[in-house]
Specification:
eleven-stranded mixed β-sheet, Penicillin amidase (Acylase) alpha subunit, N-terminal domain, Penicillin G acylase, beta-roll domain, Penicillin Amidohydrolase, domain 1, Acylase, Penicillin_amidase_N_B-knob, hydrolase, eight-stranded antiparallel β-sheet, signal, alpha+beta, about 800 residues
């Protein structure tokens, strides 16, 4: 076929894709034609959806999610369609909503998502028919609910009668999916992309703030801000019944677009998975089937690389590769923002792209000068494989099957996978999408001034002036430019694997993973207190020294372990800290103020070293840690990484200064207050007491909140979200699960606060995978949706 014919065929295919994705059929009957699903609402509003096809399954999923969280889905679509400024306001051309809109408007104008939907429908070159059917059905289900209810009659005040609530198209969901894929890469530096402008002939470019890009540059690893997780994969040697078990404990935002949604999705004979997915996604992303369970934790690997560009003399928009100039491409995009006198006014920005990817600035670090600029390659920008990957994960029977899925699709955008199967084998893998920066490439192609940055953080700045420094392709990689499976860390174990957002190195301390590219993570370095506590909890359970009965895990003992609410930092240093403030009952705060430490000392001495609701003074220790009080006298010992360092540096004056600062910060809040009285979550007029606490203090059950002076911590920002302790046995899965912030964001929903109150009391809902488990639920309610009816 001639090039012109191939181009014509590609354009035709793209046009057909666009026509299908944007089509919204005219009549209600047409919209629902052929769709049908059964929804069985169990306790806490969890939908168990059964359908005869993936299109019908998507329909039921979209309908149920719209019933509970339509406003969240609608707002995600507003973001991905570059309309935040128009609907939610903007304070100026550099406002966060404006920057977001400009970034996504460029992706829309570039037809980024549409191009990823053209190609062989094998889940690799483009999404499979099964996944496309799920998306098509999901959109139809959402639209069916919205049509029946009407935007003006929605019970959720967050979006009732709002102009941004409208029927969806399939393209809307594909765009929100792409936005999730680039969450830790180009989206994380979008303000640096938006701000990038060349210097003028008379001087340097006007520098705009790029706080997000600067934060990414300063981060110690590639984890996206605001998310994290714990997970255990337990094998036969670690469980009481010799089958596998999994703990899922993702730490995600309690509000907004990244909330989880519990669901059980089933197409008989083809797919049967219980767990949770992010609101707006039609698939279970963390969960289990009959013989396999899995969770995800945020990986430390980097998702993009920098390229230092040598610019052509006299032309800051051309760059040299092997001595030959290449012209950057430009695209000017325009978004509408609220005008000062009503209506909207246009804001435009010109973006600059290279064959590597977009030009990015980080003022003061990566500036665009007359001689140098920086571009990034985002290896997730072409990743639309994720739903196919998760679909196939849900069909795997064992962790060995799961590895084959990971190897084939290489779809995980920024997370590890921790899993176990009914045979009693556990798996850890960071088989996420990682740029192909091999040790050889980093040695040859990272210029000397940037080698320390790579060594300390894994951020690679490659020499963009040499074609030999391109990312290249591993022979076993799913796509060019990423590390293939053979170059990624993986471990099978009969006892256990864990991860709490440190690198892969200590997934199991008895078999450290070493020798991998620095871009994935660090090795033989100190672990966080949360990682160390997670490992210590497993080791004590297997030794039978944690105070719980017997040895090995059951679902009950795993639940008690997660919500045991130990504070590892307190266990290590509290007694020495009390000795310091007892001997010297005053301290000097950072601002020079002399602070009386006697009440703080007494509160810490009485504290029970936990973050339970009845723990008095726990918040004081957390504030001490946040004030940089955890300073250790001993050093990290690579031969004992779980327990070192661990001794407070009592001679360091900064320790007493941190305690004085903590006392100052808590002015008006009793230092010995009961945690449940000062740490709460609002639900309507209720204030639900919340246990858990800051990871920096060495707390496994992580809860992050903002201190309100004189009040306490009245709102959870993020932390423990979907928690699952699943046990795999010969009779199927069993165990416990909960969604800490509850199933619905709608304050008028019966499922707005029920699981939050349950979490407050360390309660749980049971796994309801089998028909017998589901039928035993006294609150079960069944209805059918589809064909224009709901009954």
């Amino acid at each position: 076929m001639r090039a012109s014919a191939r181009l014509g065929a590609a354009v035709t295919a793209l046009g057909l894709v666009l026509a299908g994705l944007n089509a919204v059929p005219a009549s209600a009957h047409q919209r629902d034609r052929g769709f049908s699903a059964e929804i069985r609402r169990a306790s806490y509003g969890v939908p168990h959806i059964i359908a005869t096809s993936f299109a019908n399954l998507g329909f039921g999923t979209g309908y149920a999610q719209a019933e509970d969280n339509l406003c969240v889905i609608a707002e995600k679509v507003v973001t991905a369609n570059a309309e935040r400024s128009r609907f939610f306001g903007a304070t100026g051309p550099t406002d966060a909503n404006v920057r977001s809109d400009l970034f996504f408007r460029k992706a829309i104008d570039d037809r980024t998502v549409e191009r990823l939907l053209v190609g062989r429908r094998d889940g690799m070159h483009s999404p499979s028919d099964d996944v496309r059917d799920q998306i098509r059905g999901f959109v139809a289900g959402y639209n069916s609910y919205l049509r029946r209810t009407g935007a003006a009659r929605l019970t959720d005040p967050a979006c009732r009668a709002k102009p941004w609530v409208r029927p969806l198209t399939e393209l809307d969901i594909w765009r929100t999916t792409w936005a999730s894929m680039v969450r830790a890469s180009s989206r994380a530096v979008l303000d640096g992309i938006v701000a990038a402008a060349p210097p003028t002939a008379t001087g340097p470019a006007a520098v705009q703030d790029a706080p997000g890009a600067a934060a990414v540059l300063a981060a110690r690893d590639g984890a996206p801000a605001g998310v994290g997780s714990n997970a255990y994969g337990l094998g036969e040697a670690a469980t009481a019944n010799s089958g596998g078990m999994v703990l899922a404990n993702p730490h995600f935002p309690w509000d907004g677009a990244e909330r989880f949604y519990r669901m059980h999705l089933k197409v008989p004979g083809r797919y049967d998975v219980e767990g949770a997915g992010l609101i707006g996604d039609p698939i279970v992303e963390i969960g289990h089937n009959r013989t396999l369970a899995w969770s995800h934790t945020v990986s430390t690997a980097r998702r993009f690389v920098w390229h230092r560009l040598a610019l052509a003399p006299g032309d800051p928009t051309s760059y040299l590769v092997d001595g030959q100039p290449r012209k950057m491409t430009t695209r000017t995009v325009t978004v509408q923002v609220p005008g000062p006198n009503g209506g909207t006014v246009p804001v435009s920005r010109t973006f600059h792209d290279t064959h590597f990817g977009p030009v990015v600035v980080v003022p003061g670090s990566f500036d665009w000068t007359a001689s140098t600029a920086y571009a990034i390659t985002d290896v997730n920008a072409t990743n639309l494989r994720a739903f196919d990957g998760w679909l196939q994960m849900g069909r795997a029977d064992t962790v060995r099957d799961l590895k084959r899925v990971l190897d084939r699709y290489q779809f995980l955008p920024w997370v590890n996978v921790i899993a176990a199967d009914a045979r009693g084998e556990a798996l850890y893998a960071d088989h996420s999408v990682v740029p192909r920066v091999t040790p050889a490439l980093s040695a040859a192609c990272i210029p000397a001034p940037f080698q320390p940055l790579y060594a300390s953080s894994g951020q690679a700045v490659l020499d963009g002036s040499r074609s030999a420094c391109a990312l290249g392709k591993d022979a076993d990689a799913a796509v060019p430019g990423i590390l293939g499976p053979a170059n990624l860390p993986i471990r099978f174990r009969a006892d256990y694997v864990t991860n709490s957002n440190d690198s892969y190195w200590l997934a199991n301390p008895q078999a450290p993973l070493e020798g991998f590219a620095r871009i994935i993570g660090d090795e033989r370095t100190p672990r966080s207190l949360r990682t160390r506590l997670g490992l210590d909890q497993v080791q004590r359970r297997l030794a039978g020294t944690d105070g719980l009965p017997g040895r090995g895990f059951t679902a009950d003992r795993l639940w008690q372990t997660v919500f045991g609410n130990r504070v590892y930092g307190g266990e290590l240093v509290r007694d020495d800290l009390v000795a310091i403030c007892t001997a010297q009952p005053t301290g000097t705060a950072s601002d020079g103020t002399t602070v009386d430490l006697r009440a703080a000392c007494a509160a810490l001495a009485r504290w029970d070293l936990h973050v339970d609701l009845d723990s008095h003074g726990a918040h004081l220790f957390s504030e001490f840690v946040l004030a940089n009080g955890l300073r250790f006298a001993d050093t990290f010992d690579v031969t004992d990484p779980v327990h070192t360092p661990g001794r407070l540096d009592t001679a360091n004056p900064g320790v007493r200064t941190a305690l004085a600062d903590a006392v100052q910060r808590l002015a008006g809040i009793p230092l010995d207050a009961r945690l449940g009285d000062v740490q709460t979550e609002p639900r309507g007029e209720r204030r639900i007491p919340i246990h858990g606490g800051r990871a920096e203090a060495g707390i496994f059950n992580m809860i992050i909140n903002n201190r309100v002076p004189g009040v306490g911590y009245p709102k959870v920002v993020h932390g423990s979200s979907f928690v699952m302790a699943v046990e795999l046995g010969p009779h199927g899965p069993s165990g416990r699960q909960i969604l800490t912030y509850s199933q619905s964001t709608n304050p008028n929903s019966p499922w707005y606060a029920d699981q939050t109150a349950l979490y407050s009391g360390k309660g749980w809902d049971t796994i309801k995978y089998t028909e017998a488990q589901l039928r035993a639920d006294r609150n079960l309610r069944t209805y059918r949706v589809g064909e224009g009816r709901h009954h």
